[in-house]
What we know:
The complex is a heterodimer of chains A (385) and B (137).
Chain A: E1 8-15, H1 26-40, E2 50-55, H2 62-68, E3 76-81, H3 89-99, E4 105-113, H4 143-158, H5 162-176, H6 190-195, E5 198-201, E6 203-204, E7 213-222, H7 223-227, E8 234-243, H8 265-276, E9 285-287, H9 293-302, H10 311-314, H11 333-336, H12 343-354, E10 367-372, E11 377-384
Helix pairs in contact in A: 1-2, 5-9, 8-9
Chain B: H1 15-22, E1 27-31, E2 37-38, E3 53-57, E4 61-70, H2 76-79, E5 85-92, E6 97-102, E7 115-122, E8 128-134
Antiparallel strand pairs in B: 1-2, 1-3, 4-5, 4-7, 5-6, 7-8
Amino acid sequence: MWSLRDKYAIAGIGWTDFSKKSGRTVRSLASEACLKAIADAGLEAADIDGVISFHFNDSAPAMAVATELGLDNAGYAVDYLSGGNAANLITLAATAAIEAGLARNVLCFRAMNGRSGFRLGGGRDLSAHGITQYTAPFGWITYPQAMAMWCRRHIIKYGTAPEQLGEIAVTFRENATRNPRAMQRQPITMADYLDSRMIVEPFRMLDICLETDGACAVLITGTERARDMKKKPVYIMGGAYGGGPDQGEDLFDAIRWPDQSHNFAKYIADDLWRSAGVTQRDVDFAEIYDCFTYSVIMALEGLGFCKEGEGGAYVQGGRIARGGELPLNTAGGLLSEGYIHGLNHVIEAVQQLRGEAGPRQVPDARIGLTTAGAMTCGSAMILRN
Amino acid sequence: MTYAKPLPVPDPESAPFWEGTRRHKLLIQQCGNCGRNRFPPTTFCSHCRSDAVRWLEASGRGKVFSWIVVRHPVPKDVYASDVPYVVAIIELDEGVRIVSNIVECDPSDVRAETPVRVIFRDVTDSVTLPLFVPASS
């Protein structure tokens, strides 16, 4: 269990434009985001001694960015071969590295040309070797197809309705209208959602997140150092990483998972809340990994905001809207802001806790939650100002 | 005409399975030590860690555990003529799950727990895929 409550903080954040065609190398995007995070913290290149990233070989390695930016002291450079589950894992890993004395100021980034370059959505590699030999030959090859199979389980067990998934899509889009970073800012109605094209039943087009070129970076350091930096620190109160049994080799191999009506969240919930010393009621807002509308429901249920099976009802009635009981994905999320593999959720959480969110600010936000990952394993953090 | 869809590439663990489909038999592994059935094939049993293994011919019968209906073809050129098609996770009577297509059936007729049975489709000279049809057909 992560047990470094309030010892580490996020001292700097940086991001690039989110676009469909950056016209730049991924390394260039990563470097820009990192430079901005360093400047945001009021530090210099020489202060950085660690860099961590996660990717599927679709990004710049940590050491490539350190080299481009002349981070000559960044001897601690680590790349996690990981997907969206790692967006909070790398920040927690940074705290562990600092605690172990391996580094003092660590940059964490994710960068991708997720739209103009390697597209994570899948379906372009038609090989069927290794574990995919049991799934790809049947035309089960894209991420939306994988998660739609999971969503169906929730519908089978609990009768989750399209209008409930639609509430998530509509609410997050509404949030995005106030976010200058967001790629999709045109409001949508429930009718727009229900009329949107069926892609892979039960998923419509608007159940599926964006594909984005862009990068995000956050800078992690000790709390005492953070207090002397340029911005008010955002403290890491709690965090957890993990998953359940029978995870398989990849997302298509998770057919042995006990039941796809739930995900990793229920397995890490106890550790998460215990590590932070707070409960669901204390959380003022949450940025939940929303590669699809459905992943939000599983996270809410798994983390105990509502009972298993009740996620669909929970998101209705304005509860998750900006003025609601638990504002969710206040920047628009991966569905409407952009898909930087979940690290943009951490950016937004920090802005909310600093009071820098402008028109989308949640009043008096003191504690925020970020989650990362949609299926068998994932990570989460609880932050405070 | 070249078969454009993904074709399985057998490996030392999976070769018996694909050889079985060629002979129109659905083979799954059974641990030679604790008797637990498993799919996909592996070398070690996740229950008792033994590497003793038997290959069992499954009855080919099972039920729909979950399913999707693919309506947007990806990639377009390969799947355009197949959509809408059903991909399902099927729980076999032997207690393991397998992914396949449900064919000879209108996608709107698929339900949870729909009983299904295996058929074999020789898609190339060297590859046969196990597909499923409603057991009632």
